[in-house]
Recover the amino acids of this structure.
């Protein structure tokens, strides 16, 4: 029996034992395990089963790898698309006939073509449009049949001036481009696209040869190098004639306005630099409104100006959306990786039940067990994130070597995907860790 | 002399569905420092329940338990863990060593959970504890490289390393052959001779015979309390 002379304070009367508000009058000095030791214990456990540790991380590794690689390739595609849009010249404006906002009363019948060669000359005058570097009026006359000996091919015919070559970055495989003299004297000369030359003159050199277009004989003066696809149709499958020849001899029926001016289908203008695009746009608009005698207020433009920058922005925006979409799918796989960690951690808690019981018997508190298992889950996901990051960068590097696109890894995507991986590990590690911590030492020690 | 263990009217009831199981129905006894006590009883007697309560692994339904001055019945889970760490050295039937850690790392474990002890001191104390059980030359061996008797000695070293108030052994020879059992019991005797309080829970009478005092639990109550060469000191009350 307890006697009165005990040194230890004990409740005097036989009260119910576990009263919560009654302060415990003894103090057990509580120091507990250090964080460093917790980390060491967690790593010892992870290292004890290396294969499982690697397999568990694999989900996160693949997830992060996919996120990094896809975002890098997406960024690369974006750059590639931007590059292809600006490939045939940058800082470009295209002026077309007809109002951008077609509608309202339009008196003239027909296509609404309102641009003439004189409009192009006015734009080309540096006094009118100082921001313009190059001006190329173009007459997209349409398709016609080309006949060369026994060969016969339908092709798109473009009427152009020499500035066309510079503005579209065209290079010649053979011969020369349309000259100013040929434009002035309305010569029957033609420059062939690479595919056209290949088809009409297989094996032979076309320059100097003759071919027939719409019953007229044309002399081949040049052959273009293959350009590949571009944003506005390839020149490989067409031919180029002097703009005057196109207007007067080939498509004369469509090319004369009521006033006798020669129509062009579009005028391509290259601004001096990126900063003068807007100035060029305003100046062209002023010149054309003046020439077309449109009142300052109330009347809509009878032409439209397409800014290459707008197209570029739209294309970049759509690849961005696509990249984000791919990244989101990859992020889902990261989430699946997190579930994998949770699954293995739950198995691990069950498997290590006796060990947890032992640790508790030896004095591990619930939070010590919780910490150890959380660190294990966090280590799995963080290590997975780092390895996945390296693999993702290697994939991006491999894609670069292949030369399809120049994938570029954004630092932000690295930080974010590793951060997300860690968050996933923490989130999915909580439940297994909580279960481990809540195990009763008695039950856990008896478990087998 | 202050008692190591002082138990008064200790009761533990479990609720199994609609049935209340009275595992321990009021037990009183006192164990003083330096005693070597065996707690005996057939399975189902409440012996394991008593062992769990004495080991601070569980809390009683009612009654009092003073362990080296600490009123265990009033501790929360955290404090129970600290009490286990500071006051008790456990020895289990299954040894319960971590298979991938060396003998010394296993012995260090309770000190790791205590905290506030430098790595050097921890290793030093673990080495001393292993020396005291005669395994000073096996410190870097893993459990699988040790015999059953040696593994149990590592476990005893782990129990001693915190310098606890008592060594609490649950069927410590249950997994050992008779030769190793004798060795382990000799070690307990030796440690007891050095002043360490030992409480042994067993159902084997010849193992219990090594102790100086035998508490017999039957049907959740203390059936007898016999010291070696003495008459029964206390009777169970019903």
């Amino acid at each position: 029996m307890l006697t009165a002379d005990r040194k230890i304070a004990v409740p005097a009367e036989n009260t119910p034992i576990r009263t919560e508000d009654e302060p415990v009058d003894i103090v057990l000095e509580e120091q507990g395990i250090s964080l460093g030791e917790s980390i060491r214990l967690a790593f010892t456990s992870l290292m004890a089963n290396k294969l499982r540790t690697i397999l568990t991380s694999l989900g996160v590794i693949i997830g992060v790898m996919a996120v990094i690689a896809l975002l890098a390739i997406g960024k690369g595609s974006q750059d590639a698309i931007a590059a292809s849009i600006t490939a045939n010249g940058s800082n470009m404006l295209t002026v077309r006939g007809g109002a951008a906002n077609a509608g309202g009363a339009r008196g003239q019948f027909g296509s609404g073509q309102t641009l003439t060669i004189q409009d192009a000359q006015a734009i080309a005058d540096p006094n009118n449009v100082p921001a313009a570097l190059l001006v190329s009026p173009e007459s997209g006359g349409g398709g016609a049949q080309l006949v060369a000996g026994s060969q016969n091919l339908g092709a798109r015919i473009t009427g152009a001036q020499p500035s066309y070559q510079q503005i579209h970055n065209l290079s010649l495989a053979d011969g020369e481009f349309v000259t100013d003299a040929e434009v002035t004297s309305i010569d029957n000369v033609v420059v062939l696209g690479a595919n056209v030359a290949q088809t009409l003159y297989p094996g032979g050199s076309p320059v100097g040869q003759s071919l027939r277009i719409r019953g007229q004989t044309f002399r081949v003066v040049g052959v273009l190098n293959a350009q590949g696809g571009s944003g506005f149709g390839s020149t490989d499958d067409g031919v180029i004639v002097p703009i005057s020849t196109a207007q007067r001899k080939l498509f004369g029926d469509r090319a004369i306005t009521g006033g006798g001016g020669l129509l062009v289908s579009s005028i391509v203008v290259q601004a001096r630099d990126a900063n003068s695009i807007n100035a060029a746009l305003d100046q062209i608009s002023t010149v054309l409104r003046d020439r077309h005698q449109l009142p300052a207020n109330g009347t809509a433009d009878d032409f439209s100006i397409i800014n290459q920058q707008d197209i570029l922005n739209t294309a970049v925006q759509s690849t961005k959306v696509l990249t984000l979409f791919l990244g989101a799918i990859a992020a889902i796989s990261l989430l699946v990786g997190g579930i994998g960690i949770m699954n293995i951690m739950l198995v691990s808690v069950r498997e290590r039940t006796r060990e947890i019981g032992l640790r508790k018997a030896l004095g591990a508190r619930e939070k010590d067990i919780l910490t150890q298992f959380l660190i294990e889950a966090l280590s799995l996901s963080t290590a997975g994130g780092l390895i996945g990051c390296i693999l993702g960068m290697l994939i991006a590097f491999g894609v670069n070597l292949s030369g399809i696109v120049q994938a570029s890894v954004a630092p932000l995507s690295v930080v974010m995907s590793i951060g997300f991986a860690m968050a996933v590990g923490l989130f999915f590690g909580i439940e297994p860790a909580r279960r481990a911590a809540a195990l009763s030492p008695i039950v856990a020690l008896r478990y087998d | 002399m202050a008692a190591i263990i002082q138990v008064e009217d200790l009761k533990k009831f479990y609720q199994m569905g609609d049935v209340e199981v009275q595992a321990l129905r009021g037990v009183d006894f006192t164990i003083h420092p330096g005693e070597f006590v065996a707690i005996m009883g057939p399975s189902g007697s409440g012996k394991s329940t008593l062992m769990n309560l004495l080991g601070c692994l569980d809390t009683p339904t009612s009654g009092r338990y003073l362990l080296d001055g600490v009123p265990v019945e009033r501790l929360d889970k955290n404090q129970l863990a600290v009490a286990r760490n500071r006051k008790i050295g456990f020895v289990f039937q299954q040894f319960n060593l971590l298979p991938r850690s060396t003998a010394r790392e296993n012995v260090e474990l309770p000190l790791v959970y205590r905290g506030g002890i430098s790595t050097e001191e921890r290793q030093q104390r673990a080495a001393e504890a292993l020396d005291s059980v005669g395994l000073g030359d096996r410190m870097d061996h893993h459990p699988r490289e040790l015999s059953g008797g040696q593994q149990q000695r590592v476990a005893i070293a782990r129990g001693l390393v915190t310098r606890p108030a008592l060594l609490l052994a649950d069927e410590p020879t249950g997994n050992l052959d008779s030769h190793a059992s004798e060795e382990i019991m000799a070690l307990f005797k030796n440690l007891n001779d050095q002043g360490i309080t030992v409480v042994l829970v067993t159902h084997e009478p010849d193992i219990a015979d090594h102790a100086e005092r035998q508490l017999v639990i039957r049907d959740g109550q203390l059936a007898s309390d016999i010291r070696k060469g003495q008459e029964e000191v206390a009777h169970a009350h019903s």
